[in-house]
Amino acid sequence: MSEQTFFKVTVDGITIEVPAGTTILQAARQIGGEVAPPAMCYYSKLEGSGGKCRTCLVEVAKGSEKDPRPMPKLVASCRTTVMDGMEVKNITSDKVLEARAGVVEFLLLNHPLDCPICDQAGECHLQDLSFDHGKSGTRYEFQRRTFKKHDLGQHIQLHMTRCILCYRCVFTADQLTNKRVHGILDRGDHAEIATHIEKSLDNEFIGNVIDVCPVGALTDKTFRFKNRVWYLKPMDAHRDCPTCSGRVTLWNRGDEVYRVTARKDEWGEIEDTPDGKPGWICNTCRFDKKNASEWVIEGPRAISRASVISQGHYAGNVGMTIPTETFKAVNGGRAPHLLMDIHDESEVNQPDIHLGQIQGPSNGTTFNNKKDNA
Amino acid sequence: MATTFNDIQMTEFKRLVARYPEGKQKSALLPALHLAQDSFGGWLSTETMDYIASLLTIEPIEVYEVATFYSMYNLKPVGKFVFEVCQTGPCMVSGSDNIIDYIKKTLDIKPGETTKDGMFTLKLVECLGACGYAPMMQVGKIYKEHLTKEKVDGIIAEYKAQAANN
Amino acid sequence: MGVKLLLDKANVPGIRTYEVYRREGGYRSVEKALKEMTTDAIVEEVKKSGLRGRGGAGFPTGMKWSFIAKPEGVPRHLVCNADESEPGTFKDRYLMEFLPHLLIEGLIVSSFALGSNDTYIYIRGEYAWITDILEQAIDEAKANGWLGKNILGTGFDCNIHVQRGAGAYICGEETALIESLEGNRGNPRIKPPFPAIQGVWMRPTVVNNVETLAAVVPIINMGGEEYAKIGVGKSTGTKLISACGNINKPGVYEIDMTITVEEFIYSDEYCGGIKDGKKLKACIPGGSSVPILPANLLLTTAKGEPRYMNYESLSDGGFATGSMLGSGGFIVLDEDQCIVKNTYTLARFYRHESCGQCSPCREGTGWMEKILQKIETGKGEMSDIDLLWDIQRKIEGNTICPLGDAAAWPVAAAIRHFRDEFEWHVNNPELSQTSNFGLQHYADPIHVPA
Hints:
Largest interface: B-C, 41 and 57 residues
Largest sheet of chain C: 5 strands, mixed
Oligomer: heterotrimer
Helix content of chain C: 40-55%
CATH class of the largest domain in chain C: Alpha Beta
Radius of gyration of chain A: 22 Å
Number of helices of chain C: 19
Strand order of the largest sheet of chain A: 2-1-5-3-4
């Protein structure tokens, strides 16, 4: 066997050696942290994905040792392979940051921003992306594009209005199932994910489209409006499944299993199973096994970077400053009634106190009462 | 309307498929959809698209994806004659707005609509590559160029006569 | 009279038929190339000719040919891009409609040079009657032994197939064209890999414009060096210009790229001046996506030198004060034309033609269209102009394929050169609905018709 060639690549001043054929994005992920460009459409487990959303654009300041010329345009880091001696600028490039802010604005242009009623809220990549790179307020003053809601069978809800056309679900159906029934219809700003005629997606592995969807366009109907993800405790669990690896994450409240997903890594992608294959899970595990007794619990799952649940993710990051103003100063002189973050609230709301039984939105009084009771 | 090719159409379909390498029969999809649209009433119904999918042994969704992408495929029934009037820059500077208004008034339909007698459909389209012969429109396979109001009258009369003779 | 290499026989009666075309010296280049030349020698001649892609980008054709991969046992394909869709461009249509055998001849020579046994012409779907003309010409060529098996006894097999598109500007982009040829949606591919390595059916593929392939015929007949003597600098040979808009003689003209823009517009040999004795206001010289220029910058460069109808001169000054030869779609606007409205219709065109695959183009083109419509209908605000500028900047260079740039450039150039007309629209919401900004200071000062 011939020896593998390794290339040196520098991303934002950090140099790393990677095998030839590695993409800039994968090299940057190996370095980790903020050096890794965000990716909304690329999905390493799906062949052919990437290149479309343009959030991972980076500047190649030096092409390679042999040909040091910079690349004339920003390149999609998910689809550009590294060359030996390549120098890449991600967050150290103003051009990149400006283009990325532009892409975020484009992605949000027609997005309904219905996070308060969206099941994806809290684990939505578009939320994270907007938080990191977006601006408050929109410059778009026209009516937003809307689509009719499509029913994709009893388990999967399609909210096309939220879709950013990453094509991941199409690749998933192509690569995991033997018969794709949904796809991209129409073109341009009217393009949509659809089945053309109402059809249900009923392949045994089709549920994985929910896990790959970066936004709330494809959601789990068995979990619809049941709970907020940040109120749930994610637990790694497994079962002996004849169809798939059976390795999942259970999202529990107390003993109750609210939903089942595949296990996701820090980039929000399906984790590999120990045999090195992507840990896609079957519909039975995902939709039908909602009793904790059907699972062997392994332990709590660390929440990935790709979630606003993960506390402290946004503070002190490269390129961001920790605010020093008081809340009062930025709130027009008004002191807030109550300040708490999601983390605090989920601690306060013990599983035995059902949110639905609290009259009205939770406020300072509820908060104090519960503290007294505890 | 039948949704299977007759012998002549099937021969043409086979000729189209034969142009591509073995196993790459999906390449014939665009020409096959043209053939189907011409054969089955000027538009592509779901049944027609499913039929083409079965002939090319591809999934129906692959046909829907393609048929909805390209602007020449009609996914709804259209009139006997479709007036596709160009409205892009070069035609616009040559007065296409007036022609469009005149057709709208004369046929009493809005773009996208068909006359009550099912004879004419008006479609506004983007550049058809006849900028030097503007304003213009396409009717079926034919380009009608250097349009004036009088010419439009003549064209409408011509097609009415043609329909009456058939 | 300038030199004519492509259209010199266009007016010969019956030139569309094989008999007349052959009698007029047609298919000589096939005899010469297949019998007397090696494939490498043909590529070398094309390199020497300096021929640049006539579809719009102007990439050297010989170099493009030399990139084609030649892996053992894998078929290669030549694909002729006849998806002419850039607004203002209708030259390929003219060539195919009146001289179909010239294209077929160029295709046979080029297919031989590239080793393509199955060559495809991808023609825009609307050119349905031209498809028939081409298929007939192919049948004639085949019947006379120029196509099929063992052509001229050289052992070279070649068939040409015509595939109609179905209405999508984006399929003029070579990777989108390849996708469409494979029966898919016309979504451009992400490069690399380039078509020369993995093109149609993942096989090495060269995609060339109709006019480019037709130009191979005179190049072989006269030799690359002779061809390169016509024209100037890196603009060698002749170029077809399709002229349209407010001129006296719209049509397709073959020019040798040494004439000035002024001559092209005003000479009776070409456009014959502005229609109805009006004044020239502006011009989009190379198809709708290239920057629009006001009359003064069109006729002379920023340095005050006359501007010529060639690649270098038209782009003199970069985008700040120049434009591009592009596809040769020459759109002339007279004093009564509204730049805002013209820009709006082009923005609408690009929104309509965006494939929707990447976000800056999908969302940005629609946004620009809406803002331009708002200004055009008298509802615009001053901040909209700056917003438009900012949006086009965020699209340009950030998309998968050049459609993003093609949509951004017209908007950028219109604001760059005609900002006061946009501002006038904003400041005169009612007046702008009934009257026109007119010429103001853009008028060409030399040519004021009596």
